[in-house]
Amino acid sequence: MNRDSIHVAKVEALRFLHRVDALERYFVVNHVNMPNPIWFGTMETAALRRASMDLTRALAKMRSRRPSDDTDHYKTALQSRCRVQSKV
Length: 88
Prior knowledge:
This protein is mostly helical. The chain has one domain. The chain has 3 helices and no strands.
């Protein structure tokens, strides 16, 4: 674990939570009143699934004992995601 990998995992966790909130808003807007709806095939569920995969990858890298070779590429991708989210 290092400071960068912890920060990346934190940002990915926040992005995941943001996507969860977006899906919950989608349920409210579309009047989904079922107690436990199963949804797939929407833009919101796809974004949540992607955020989940990215969070899983970030957590695995954070737990890894060996340094990652693609740290710079990953940081660049993460920074661009942060800029996009700040505009939303």
